[in-house]
Amino acid sequence: MWFGREENKNSNEISPIFFKVLSELGQDALLVAPGEVVRFATEGIETLNILRENRIMSPELVALIRVVRRTQQTHTGNIEVPRGPIGEGLRELTIRAIYLSEIENIVVLISDESEASRVHEVRRDFVANISHELKTPIGALSLLSEAVLSASDDPASVVKFATRMQLEAKRLTDLVQGIINLSRLQDSDPLQIATEHLIADLVNEAVDLVKTTSDAKGIQVTVNEFPSVVVLGDGEQLIMAIHNLLENAINYSPQNTNVSVSTSLADEIVEIIVTDQGIGIAEGELERIFERFYRVDPARSRETGGTGLGLSIVKHVASKHGGEVRVWSSPKVGSSFAIRLPIYSTHGGNE
């Protein structure tokens, strides 16, 4: 929990026990003084993107508080707030504001209801997509197993069909793992269990994960020097997103080319940019590449084991962390993907 500047002036008016009670309620809470100055906030408030320097940034929340102050009656309402300064991610918050006449302050209780309604809708659509996508590798495995049985007297054919079965089995395994990863992302809010992460640490971990794949294709992954910038969120999810961009860049690039990772800082936003010299993406495809199971080149995806979930996961992670993902691409030239995230803090370095 933390106390605003106003609390230091008026600490004799409110018992410390009152603040302890607020912090133990099991939900986010504010104590708001006249002028909409925040005197107290529980620890989880800082992840909701509604406060700045003890001031409430949501016009809808300010309006609700003023109604309560004017009527001196308890009010409940719902507001939407952005998850970060950029991107399309939103939170749907349920607000209960209670007027305390003895101290002329307002207690605001906040519940994040966005996840429950969103998860229900996403799961419904997701199940339909999964059932369609699983049919292809499962059907292929069934046909190939029949082919192996019918060619039992032809060793060369058995080897050929068995090899194809291995490829389809790997594709099925990757698809299931992608589904599991996306399901986990949709079931959790990284800003509710957020920790601090240096950008350099996240990138280096993701690069290590693709080293075997890049070495096999003779692709050099170049990592530029990073500033000492910290972001807030779930480290595993952020590494997964960067890893997916790197894996895509490697899979869709010719052998013996270069993939680079760099950063850019502007307006309290850090960009992690992955650039390749690959096949590129036509302008008409750019709006769809972040859809679940969408593949720009289905034949190439089958060769590389692509599931059509990688970029969907990247977009989901960026949005859930209050950021966004952007792409620049040109066919036969290459692509650049940028994950843009709010900067939580800096620790010197090349800023």
Automatic annotation (TrEMBL):
SUPFAM superfamilies: ATPase domain of HSP90 chaperone/DNA topoisomerase II/histidine kinase, Homodimeric domain of signal transducing histidine kinase. It is an enzyme of class 2 (transferase). Residues 129-345 form the Histidine kinase domain. Its EC number is 2.7.13.3. Transmembrane segments: none annotated. CDD domains: HATPase, HisKA. It catalyses: ATP + protein L-histidine = ADP + protein N-phospho-L-histidine. Keywords: Kinase, Phosphoprotein, Transferase, Two-component regulatory system. One of its GO terms (biological process) is cellular response to phosphate starvation. The keyword Transferase applies. SMART domains: HATPase_c (SM00387), HisKA (SM00388). Pfam families: HATPase_c, HisKA. GO terms for cellular component: plasma membrane. GO terms for molecular function: phosphoprotein phosphatase activity; phosphorelay sensor kinase activity. This is histidine kinase. The lineage of its organism: unclassified sequences, metagenomes, ecological metagenomes.
